[in-house]
Design a protein that fits this description.
By secondary structure, the protein is an all-alpha fold. Helices cover about 65% and strands about 0% of the residues. Helix 4 packs antiparallel against helix 5. The longest helix is centred in the first third of the chain and has 39 residues.
Length: about 200
Amino acid sequence: MNIGFLASFITFSLLVYYNIKKGTKRSRRQEAEFWARESAANSVRRKSLDGLPYIKIPLESFPTHLLQDNSQVLECIEVMESLSDKKILNLTGWTNTDLKLEYGTANITALSEYDQNYTLLARTLQKWADLLTEAGYGEEAAVLMKFAVSTNTDVSRTYYQLADYWASKKEWGQIEQLLHTARGLRSSNRGAIERYLKKLLP
């Protein structure tokens, strides 16, 4: 057998073994850290949720008068009406462990409900905006998407579509504001959104 090949094979094998061992050690450390945080979280007492930044839906400023003959639009409006008297929180980027550590284990069910309300809100706003845009109501669709962005939504399409609208109007300052919001997102979508917005700027 070629000595050089054998030496290379041994070196390669040692590197593979080292990386596997290193990865296993890292995984065990991460798992231990997770369970340590989870144990600590489960002992946190309930905290008041009164001061949280609940989202209020300004339904009176939404274009509810448009496309009244469209069943999908009416469905979106109904969802908004049903959410208007519920508590809504954007908890994107928070794990259950994070929430228990911050607000107490006893609040996890309520917080999860508030976050689910937010997910429904963000998706419905974009669906409604899509329907308005397709019907030629770009300005009215922008109203919905601007509100979504003000809640720090991480729905990529909301940023893309709203940025395209502002670009068509040459409102570069509005895109800059979108970029500023995107940079503060606690979401895995942040990087993609930032890259898209930067490409639109002159």
